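ok new one. same drill as before - structure tokens go in, u give me an amino acid for every spot. 300 of them this time. try not to just spam alanines like last time pls lmao
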């Protein structure tokens, strides 16, 4: 590093971002806003062109092109298959990985694919960090995501300050796959909380209580949670347009239940709530947010 460069210049990185969905689009924007040099790729190229026009970065035609010459490559795509496609598929990013580069994956995917891609990156002398996020679309838009990571400590330490461009908390949880396993714990807890909150609101309504008053009181006590504070009143109003969709939650819970079959964990409540979400899908609620669990109770 040239000694004449300022401290700010030394902390800026050349990065790529693969996948400009509801999460990736604002995450990449925060990277550019913090001064990093950003190249983007999206399967629908017009979206990458739009991002580059709005934010002043560069759009690449393939993941491989986006990755060439970068220090850190970020990805946030749909699932395991999408992730394999943008990494080891034709014109995938890993074809351009060089020794010392770091690939940070924010997709919520399986621990299995995280370990697979960690090994593939290591063969090239590069690092792979599985780094799923929590906080939803609002967290991405506001740059306050929570990021849980798996991988090696040295590349993680290099990547963390850059990840903090769009996060309020980031932590290395352990070996490759540990980030994805932590995200699974996160989704198990959210599912249970939302079902309990749904039943509580439903019960309160049937009992003739003022639900907003009830939530104001109990949110200050042991029943309080982020879900209650942020979704309780909108659940009572039947509003379910707050980001993280039922379809995505079912994808995540499928990963959770598959991992539980492998490690022997008993998840009877999670399995039941997964089926409740299937009922919500049957009601046409595929794109409703996850607080829509209450809708299946209210219809009866």
């Amino acid at each position: 590093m040239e000694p004449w460069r300022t401290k700010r210049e030394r902390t800026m990185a050349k990065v790529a971002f693969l996948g400009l969905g509801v999460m990736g689009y604002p995450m990449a924007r925060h990277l550019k806003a913090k001064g990093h040099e950003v190249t983007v790729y999206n399967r629908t190229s017009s979206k990458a062109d739009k991002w580059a026009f709005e934010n002043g970065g560069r759009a690449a035609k393939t993941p491989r092109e986006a990755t060439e010459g970068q220090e850190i490559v970020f990805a946030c795509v749909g699932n395991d298959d999408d992730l394999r496609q943008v990494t080891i598929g034709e014109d995938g990013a890993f074809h351009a990985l060089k020794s010392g580069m770091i690939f940070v994956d924010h997709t919520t995917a399986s621990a299995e694919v995280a370990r697979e891609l960690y090994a593939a990156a290591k063969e090239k002398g590069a690092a792979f960090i599985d780094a799923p996020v929590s906080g939803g679309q609002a967290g991405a838009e506001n740059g306050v995501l929570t990021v849980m990571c798996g991988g090696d400590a040295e590349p993680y330490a290099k990547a963390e300050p850059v990840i903090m461009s769009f996060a309020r908390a980031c932590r290395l949880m352990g070996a490759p796959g540990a980030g994805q396993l932590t995200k699974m714990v996160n989704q198990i807890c959210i599912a249970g909380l939302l079902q309990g909150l749904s039943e509580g609101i439903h019960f309160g309504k049937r009992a003739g209580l003022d639900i907003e008053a009830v939530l104001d009181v109990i949110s200050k006590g042991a029943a309080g949670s982020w879900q209650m504070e942020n979704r309780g009143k909108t659940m009572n109003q039947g509003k379910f347009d707050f980001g993280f969709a039922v379809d995505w939650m079912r994808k995540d819970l499928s990963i959770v239940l598959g991992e539980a079959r492998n490690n022997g964990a008993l998840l009877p409540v999670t399995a039941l709530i997964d089926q409740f979400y299937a009922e919500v899908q049957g009601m046409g609620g595929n794109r409703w947010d996850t607080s829509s669990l209450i809708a299946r109770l209210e219809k009866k």
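The mean pLDDT is 95. and btw The first strand starts at residue 14 and ends at 18.
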